[in-house]
């Protein structure tokens, strides 16, 4: 994924960086190197998800269990049965957020009778498809005032999934369990080849909340800080700070203290602060404050009208305080056009695209093709963790085929080639991370890579979303090696 789309057969890694890239034996002076023979496997740079909600996933209650790589209900049940070997009796196995009914062949989530094959309480709250539990989970939740139907379906509202998640957070979350969940989340997505996450924040709740996108935004990073101190990070984490100050309050009660008391891009190679986003908050006064202090800012757009408004505000700020060197971002952009791309590019902005596998309708995704051919900076994000999935392979499948996980065409003529889609998720994301030595296999860059279980460039379309990593390396550190490639 360098500028020439070079394909090589060997790399040499020392002190966390590529020091040799080429064909034939790559030689270097100095001490002997461990040799890993990948036997012809396809290797790509580590995936960079330039905006997701991994920190929310890392603060889930219970024994959080990733499940975006299973595609039938029996396979999901088998995943939970395998997980139960590590879970003490009576404790919950949970998948909260990044899972979708649409990913399963059955196009639904499992019901109580199916989940009863797992000998631990199970709780599933899907980004798309609802909330489910089994008999053990039903008994626990009903004892705490949660209404659960006979088939394990938990409805919404004060007595349903909102109450269920709140009570689980209140009773199951401790500093220790949060560290476990954070570690499990990073490790799971390393198995899918993600080596860098840029987190888009959460809606602030001082106390445990029933909102799936809610957390205490002043304490939720602690488990990841613990993993970093203990040198146990399985991926790089870049932290953005979400703010929602009202537009009519010029005092900016939360944003102003953040800008005064925090540092952007502060930390180390594994964990570092970023900018303000996924919401900037405070209306145009918030944008002015972010611009004055030289921070990156990001807001999301859900339709064409919101994108037009966001860009108009940024043009107004830019006329007063230049922002063209600050790499401001608009994400999602399901409605966007060439005029907006021209205008945002003119003031130095960039757009993140993705978030499509669970959408329904027609022409509801970003105009990938138009943007890829445009000079504006474009990168990939999943925005997964609460409202959609994180797996890059589910997202890339949609970007390439134009279809959602149910097989419906949602992108019109805006889909990309495999090479283009992968570039958006690797080399093209570095602009959004503000780190120019990530996302490609080149001498001097961080040695982040994923060894795939099949050739992304040649497998049939319907195998793209099934891809996993057999061997994941971050900064020269092996973070995923189930096959023991290194002996």
Automatic annotation (TrEMBL):
Pfam families: Amidohydro_3 (PF07969). InterPro entries: Amidohydro_3, Metal-dep_hydrolase_composite, Metal_Hydrolase. GO terms for molecular function: hydrolase activity, acting on carbon-nitrogen (but not peptide) bonds. Residues 34-480 form the Amidohydrolase domain. Keywords: Hydrolase. It comes from the Bacteria. SUPFAM superfamilies: Composite domain of metallo-dependent hydrolases, Metallo-dependent hydrolases. PANTHER family: IMIDAZOLONEPROPIONASE, PERIPLASMIC PROTEIN. This is Putative amidohydrolase YtcJ. It comes from Jiangella mangrovi.
């Amino acid at each position: 994924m360098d500028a020439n789309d070079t394909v090589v057969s060997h790399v040499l890694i020392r002190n966390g960086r590529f020091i040799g890239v080429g064909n034939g034996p790559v030689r270097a002076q100095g001490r002997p190197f461990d040799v890993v023979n990948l036997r012809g496997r396809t290797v790509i740079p580590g995936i960079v998800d330039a905006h997701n909600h991994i920190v929310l996933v890392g603060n889930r209650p219970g024994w959080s269990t990733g499940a975006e790589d299973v595609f039938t209900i029996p396979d999901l049940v088998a995943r939970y049965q395998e997980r139960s070997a590590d879970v003490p009796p009576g404790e919950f196995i949970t998948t909260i957020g990044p899972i979708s009914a649409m990913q399963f062949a059955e196009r639904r989530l499992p019901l109580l009778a199916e989940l009863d094959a797992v000998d631990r309480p199970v709780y599933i709250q899907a980004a798309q498809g609802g909330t489910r539990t089994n008999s053990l989970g039903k008994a626990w939740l009903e004892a705490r005032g949660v209404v659960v139907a006979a088939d394990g379906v938990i409805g919404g509202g004060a007595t349903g999934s909102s109450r269920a998640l709140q009570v689980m957070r209140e009773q199951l979350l401790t500093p220790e369990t949060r560290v476990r969940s954070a570690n499990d989340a990073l490790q799971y997505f390393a198995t899918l080849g993600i080596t860098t996450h840029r987190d888009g924040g959460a809606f602030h709740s001082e106390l445990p909340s029933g909102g799936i996108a809610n957390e205490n935004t002043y304490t939720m990073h602690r488990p990841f800080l613990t993993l970093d101190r203990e040198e146990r990070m399985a991926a790089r984490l870049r932290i953005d700070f979400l703010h929602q100050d009202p537009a009519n309050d010029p005092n900016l009660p939360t944003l102003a203290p953040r800008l005064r008391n925090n540092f952007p891009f502060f930390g180390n190679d594994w964990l570092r602060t970023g900018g303000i986003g996924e919401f900037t908050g405070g209306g145009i006064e918030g944008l002015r404050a972010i611009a004055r202090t030289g921070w990156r800012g990001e807001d999301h757009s859900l339709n064409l009208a919101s994108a037009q408004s966001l860009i108009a505000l940024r043009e107004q700020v830019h006329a007063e305080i230049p922002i063209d060197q600050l790499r401001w971002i608009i994400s999602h952009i399901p409605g966007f056009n060439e005029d907006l791309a021209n205008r945002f590019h003119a003031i130095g902005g960039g757009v993140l695209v993705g978030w499509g596998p669970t959408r329904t309708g027609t022409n509801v995704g970003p105009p990938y093709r138009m943007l890829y051919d445009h000079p504006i900076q474009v990168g990939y994000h999943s925005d997964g963790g609460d409202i959609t999935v994180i797996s890059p392979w589910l997202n890339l499948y949609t970007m390439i085929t134009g279809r959602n996980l149910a097989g419906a065409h949602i992108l019109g003529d805006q889909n990309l080639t495999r090479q283009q889609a992968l570039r958006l998720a690797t080399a093209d994301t570095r602009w959004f991370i503000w780190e120019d030595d990530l996302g490609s296999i080149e001498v001097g860059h961080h040695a982040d890579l994923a060894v795939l279980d099949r050739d992304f460039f040649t497998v049939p379309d319907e195998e793209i979303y099934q891809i996993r990593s057999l061997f994941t390396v971050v900064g020269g550190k092996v973070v995923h090696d189930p096959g023991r490639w290194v002996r």
